[in-house]
């Protein structure tokens, strides 16, 4: 992958997973979308992910609210493509049930009963494990020829006040499970987040509070 902007380091150029965060109102969603478009140049396939439920990406691109399905939202000169995904936590949990326990029907029944929403509300750490687990699946997915489905994945992450907890899958894992598929999935997420494939971008403004939160997050 070539460097999309002058001034990028070799480490940033090698990253395939980009988290964009910042204090609310600093334009992090706009920055995430701009980064996704920049990375889509020269024929790259890029996935832009939203995890907060605000449908900010759909508003930026003037499209219908994003479903829990990857869909194209922009074509880029040079043959590149930008797709977008809104991760719905309840749908991600149902997908998890189907993938690891073959409980698709039972999971849908639980959702109708309200048990899925109850579970994700009762265990906030579960929500973050599901979200980051889905992100990991998108980053690692490959085609039949062995190539990655996406050259890069950009995440419009929670704001600075919540992003550390969101990315601290180790803590969530300790609270949730000692063994089993969910632990294995979370450990894979931890390895990805601490690898050279992952970069975090901070959006801020020249104002006291946004700068202060950015500096605190950087430390």
From TrEMBL:
| Top-level lineage group | Bacteria
User: Molecular function (GO) terms listed?
Assistant: ATP binding; ATP hydrolysis activity
Q: Which residues form the ArsA/GET3 Anion-transporting ATPase-like domain?
A: 16-193
Q: Which SUPFAM superfamilies match?
A: P-loop containing nucleoside triphosphate hydrolases
| Stored Pfam families | ArsA_ATPase (PF02374)
> PANTHER family of this UniProt entry?
ARSENICAL PUMP-DRIVING ATPASE ARSENITE-TRANSLOCATING ATPASE, ATPASE RV3679-RELATED
Record's protein name: Anion-transporting ATPase
């Amino acid at each position: 992958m070539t460097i999309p902007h002058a001034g990028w380091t070799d480490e940033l150029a090698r990253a395939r997973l980009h988290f964009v965060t910042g204090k609310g109102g600093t334009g992090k969603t706009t920055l995430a979308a701009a980064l996704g478009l920049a990375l889509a140049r020269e024929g790259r396939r890029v996935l832009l992910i939203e995890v907060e439920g605000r449908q900010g990406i759909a508003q930026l691109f003037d499209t219908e609210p994003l479903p829990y399905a990857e869909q194209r939202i922009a074509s880029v000169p040079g043959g590149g493509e930008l797709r977008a995904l809104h991760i719905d936590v309840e749908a991600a949990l149902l997908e998890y049930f189907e993938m690891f326990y073959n409980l698709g029907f039972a999971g849908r029944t639980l959702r109708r009963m309200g048990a899925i929403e109850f579970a994700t509300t009762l265990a906030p750490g579960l929500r973050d494990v599901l979200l980051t687990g889905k992100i990991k699946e998108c980053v690692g997915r490959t085609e039949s020829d062995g190539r990655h489905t996406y050259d890069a994945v950009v995440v419009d992450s929670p704001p600075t006040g919540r992003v550390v907890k969101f990315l601290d899958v180790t803590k969530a894992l300790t609270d949730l499970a000692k063994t089993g598929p969910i632990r294995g999935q979370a450990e894979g997420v931890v390895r990805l987040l601490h690898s050279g494939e992952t970069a975090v971008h901070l959006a801020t403004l020249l104002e006291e509070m946004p700068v202060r939160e950015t500096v605190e997050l950087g430390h």
